[in-house]
Amino acid sequence: MQIKVSDTFLQPLIKINRTMRAKIVAGNWKMNKTAQEALTLTQEIIEGLKNVELGANKQVIVCPPSLYLSSVKNTTENSKLQVGAQNCHQNDFGAYTGEISVPMLQSLDIPYVILGHSERRTYFGETDEQIKEKVDKVLAYDLKVIYCCGELLAVRETGAYFDLVKQQISTALFHLTPTQLQNVVIAYEPVWAIGTGVTASPEQAEEMHAHIRHLIAEQYNQEIADQMTILYGGSCKPSNAASLFSKPNVDGGLIGGAALKADSFLGIIACM
Ligand code: 13P
Question: For 20-48+58-269, which CATH superfamily applies?
Answer without folding.
Answer: Aldolase class I (3.20.20.70)
